[in-house]
Amino acid sequence: MAGLLAQVQQMQTQVESAQQEMAQAEVTGSAGNGLVTVTGNGTGDITAVSISREVVDPEDVETLQDLIIGALSDLASRRDALVAEKMGPLAGGLPGLG
Question: Structure pTM?
Fold first, then answer.
C-alpha cells in the first residue's frame, strides 16, 4: 500500500508539472495561409488574435468569420495535441488508469 501511495504522489507531482508546462506553452492556430492567427496557451486561454488587412472587407464579412473559426479550430487541435503529449503518458502510470 505504501508503494501505491508513493506512486500516486509521484503522479500528482508529474501532473502538476505538466499543467504548469501547458500553461506556459504558446500554441498558435491559423487559417487562410496565416491571414488569421489565434494564439493561446495549453490551458485554453486565448492571448492574441492577428488578422491581415487583406481579409478585412466590409462587403465580405462572412469570409473573415470563416477564417476566424478556422483559426480557432486549428488552435484547439494543436492544444489537444499538446495536452495529449503532456498528459497522455501520465494516464497509463497507475494500474486501472491506462
Answer: 0.74
